[in-house]
C-alpha cells in the first residue's frame, strides 16, 4: 500500500450516522494499532480540529477513544435537527467525508 495520505487511507471504514435527531456520530475503524495510535492521539485529532472541519463549537464535541477495538468515535450536535426544512442529509450519512479526507503525515 502506498504511504497513507488521509485518515481514510489508514482506516477500514470511516462512517457517520445520526445519534438521535440532534446529534451526529462519526466512527473511525482503524486497520491496526499503529493507525489507531495516530488518530487517537489528542495532539493529532482533537476537538479544535473537528470544530474547524465541521463548523461547530469545540466545546460541544465529544471524542471517545476505544483502544481495544482500534476505534475513535466523535459526536457533536447536528447543525440543524434531523428532518427539518434545512436538513440536507437526513441520515447524516455524508458527514464523514471531511474527516476521512483529513491529511496525515506519510509513514
TrEMBL record:
Residues 8-100 form the DUF4387 domain. This is DUF4387 domain-containing protein. It comes from Paractinoplanes lichenicola.
Amino acid at each position: 500500500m502506498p504511504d497513507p495520505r488521509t485518515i481514510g487511507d489508514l482506516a477500514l471504514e470511516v462512517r457517520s450516522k445520526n445519534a438521535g435527531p440532534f446529534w451526529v456520530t462519526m466512527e473511525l475503524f482503524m486497520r491496526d494499532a499503529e493507525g489507531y495510535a495516530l488518530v487517537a492521539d489528542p495532539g493529532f485529532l482533537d476537538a479544535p480540529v473537528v470544530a474547524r472541519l465541521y463548523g461547530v463549537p469545540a466545546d460541544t464535541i465529544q471524542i471517545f477513544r476505544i483502544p481495544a477495538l482500534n476505534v475513535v468515535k466523535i459526536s457533536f450536535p447536528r447543525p440543524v435537527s434531523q428532518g427539518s426544512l434545512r436538513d440536507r442529509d437526513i441520515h447524516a450519512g455524508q458527514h464523514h467525508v471531511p474527516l476521512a479526507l483529513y491529511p496525515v503525515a506519510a509513514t
